Amino acid sequence: MKTILLILTGGTIGSEKKKNIINVSQKNYLQSFLKKTSKEIIFKIIHPINILSENAIPDDWNSIVKSIEENWNNDYSGIIITHGTDTLSFTSSALSQYFYNFNKPVILVSSDKPIKEKNATGKKNLEAAINFILKTKLPGTYISYKNPKENFVSFYLGSRVKQINSYDNALNARYSGIFCNFKKNKFQFIKTKNPSILSIKKNGNSYKLNNKFRFSKKILIINPYPGLNYDVYNFNKIKPKAVLHTLYHSETASTRIDTKENFSLEKFIKKNRYKKIPFYITPISEKNKNIYASLKSLLKLNVKCLYGISFETAYAKLTLAYKSFKNKKNRNNFLRKNNFFEKIYF
Length: 346
Fold this sequence. Notes:
Elements: E1 2-8, E2 15-18, E3 21-24, H1 30-37, E4 41-46, H2 58-71, E5 78-82, H3 88-98, E6 105-109, H4 122-135, E7 140-145, E8 153-157, E9 180-183, E10 186-189, H5 197-203, E11 219-222, E12 242-246, H6 265-271, E13 279-284, H7 293-300, E14 304-307, H8 311-324, H9 328-336
Parallel strand pairs: 1-4, 1-5, 5-6, 6-7, 11-12, 12-13, 13-14
Antiparallel strand pairs: 2-3, 7-8, 8-9, 9-10
């Protein structure tokens, strides 16, 4: 008899609709669906949090991993985590860091509608996730997701996904796109820019859970836009552990200084240097030989670059690093080293 640890966290998949308002439910509507899936599977169900995912904070990730540590049994076949779509990419990136050396599948499952509604995609996503655990047995963190207008479920590497598109509800990933499709009860693996099945099995070689890893809620994200006045950030009131500043697609940010307002990231960093707050930038590639003058100005300030990973994974790394590593050297080593599922295969 196979056993799967099922973690319920709320989200649309754990919600119900009343008078056109969708909110999390106290009832477990998945229970009846799970009984129909297979009589040969035992589901150990735990419910560490029950929130809509837009309300998620890093402390909720800590609650999830703590519940896993308390309930995991090495005889289990894998873990399924039900989750809302709004912050799905953030949680999957965070858990990809936590499970970097875990040798069982961990799959996040969401739904476009509450699960008890007739055409909710969560049913197919959950069914596909169960099959992935039982049939492929591949370690790593994944997302099981049926995109709109598709008649099959796709799987994505959890450390590479982007936020779901606002208007068409499509999920996609940086660098590699889809890892595999589940169609007509079979898995079709997409080789382009993805690690091979054999290499995944070799890298997921430990049962060890990272029970000393936790996530910090004291990382500040700044996203650039035309007209961003950096003076709105007052570090005299709240001092973050670190700042993660994203870049425009050409790996740039404003360094303009010919105005009265402070539109310059360069000036902002210099102004706050005495506070000794680490500044990180992402996404950025190590391969670019030609860079813009604005980026060169930032690099001269010794800002720290998080190379070759998504913004969500960069944020996950920082939240983990600044909570789990007291030693600065160990923290920097962790941030420099990409885990196996973050590596890009061309």
